[in-house]
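Throughout our pipeline, every protein is held as a single compact record rather than as scattered files. The record that follows is passed on verbatim for readers who wish to inspect the format:
___
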Amino acid sequence: MDSVRAAGTVYRELLSLFEGLDATSDIVQVVEGISPDGAACPLYISVGSGGSRQTFWRFTPDDEPESWFDEEGRRLGEAAFAQPRPGSRLSSPFGPRRYYGRLSGSGFHDGIDYESKVGEPIFAAADGVIEHQGGYFEYGLTTKVRHAAQQVTLYAHMSRFAKGIAVGATVRKGELIGYVGMTGRSTGAHLHFSTIINGKFVDPAPYLSNNGNRYLSSPSLVTFRKWQQDILAAVKNARDQQRRPPIDDFDWTKRI
């Protein structure tokens, strides 16, 4: 375990998971790949052997942020999203709602609202890239962050944006991205927070929950299984190549 601990900050999140495991084995297998920018990145890590072996996979679904998952596709560790307004009261949930004070009509609330004061900080819910920053229909000043191929979060009614943050910038989970306001169609200061999956608004609440029962969606689970098979096949192929005895130059000349 000490060798894994020294591997760097990339394993810090996984090491925190080990604290809750009853893993007495010192047998640890780490398989790494190379990211697009050339850096080493973990693919999976196994602890123990035989029937007690536990494997954790570093996987990037299309519809939620990258994380560690167990063999069954259950997300491990902290929630997928951090609270964009920590400590603020949830004033309006996702889903149908009535507009009180009107003679008729109701509507669908495509996000959740956090009761706040103008100027209070807003934080990125997860790692991602700033996709939009500016006015956005009735949402007023808005920031959109892409976290995965099919997942975006939206932060609306802002008063201003954080300095040094612009479209195309990479942000980290919990990083300051702006400040609460009441721009656009707003009856008072608050943060409107939405989650968009494959172009459709979905309830952000499950992504903010850390109840330990967050599994991959059905489409992502299919991709996860295929990805696991591809990784294991590549590892087997690499091992077979290492076991294959080398052929010296003399043998090659005899075959020409």
Observations:
- The longest strand covers residues 151-161.
